[in-house]
Amino acid sequence: MKTEQIERGHSFKGKRVVVLGGTSGIGFATAEAAAREGASLVVVSSQKERADRAVSRLPEGTKGYAVDLTNEEQVRHFFSEIGEFDHLVFTAGDPLMIESLDAIDIDTAHRLFNVRYWGAFMAIKYGSRNIIQGGSITLTSGVAGVRPQKGFTVAASICGAVESLTRALAVELSPLRVNAVCFGLMRTELWDDIPEEDRNAMYENAGKSLLVGRVGEPKDGAEAFLYLMREQYSTGQIVVVDGGSTLV
Q: Which residues have a catalytic role annotated?
């Protein structure tokens, strides 16, 4: 048991992990957790200030880049610059659109797809060729695709598209492993547009309704990503991390 614990504690030693969206929330927690297990890191944000701030909080040697993931040329150039790596994690995404169908602005809906779906698509198109044998790709989805609520037509559509993409890529890129993590409500910066008092009330009320009695934390999400990077036999799978929300 002691040997297994030591091996697990250094299971990413010598591995290079690229986290797109790795400067905040679940992405940053994933980068931190991988670093604790010995990984070298590349983190990406759309804003240089966020990338620089994340690098200052992560171990020495971490590389930070500002990349517009909706811009194909920037994505292509980024992957041509960074060279080979072991694992690609995609957690990037703009705030969710929660609107009735009549109120949805189509241009805004297009932009959300551009980051969460097409951004992931382009990252894999240009980044997968850099992944070392035995590596992996892990994408991000949400339970809106499994159990949508009113106002979640765009979010549910994106989640469904990402999960279908995950399965298709697992076939297309085999033997490279491609999986996704499907999240329920998580306590992250994604909800910072909501006033703090209302946001805390949302977390408290939602937590009471969940089987685990609380909402998710970034570290919960990080554990799921580390699992899918670490193990070697799953591909085309969607790991649900939702506190039981799809059951209640």
A: 141
